[in-house]
UniProtKB/TrEMBL annotation:
SUPFAM superfamilies in UniProt: Scorpion toxin-like
GO biological process per UniProt: defense response
Domain Knottins-like intervals: 9-52
Species annotation: Nymphaea colorata (pocket water lily)
Matching Pfam families: Gamma-thionin
Domain of life: Eukaryota
Name of the protein in question: Knottins-like domain-containing protein
PROSITE patterns according to UniProt: GAMMA_THIONIN
């Protein structure tokens, strides 16, 4: 199906996670501490995720 805009996920590099990312759950915990909804390892880097801001 077609993804609705409010379902889109935006990714940002974690500002607090240092080193190579091997545990997505650890990355997610760091991201949640930064105010994101979650995170995962992508190419050995921790990336944080959150719903994209609504575009009017």
């Amino acid at each position: 199906g077609v993804a609705r805009a409010e379902d889109a996920v935006c990714y940002s590099a974690s500002g607090r996670f240092h080193g190579l990312c091997f545990s997505s759950s650890n990355c997610a915990n760091v991201c949640q501490g930064e105010g994101f909804t979650g995170g995962d390892c992508h190419l050995l880097a921790c990336r944080c995720s959150r719903p994209c801001p609504a575009k009017n």
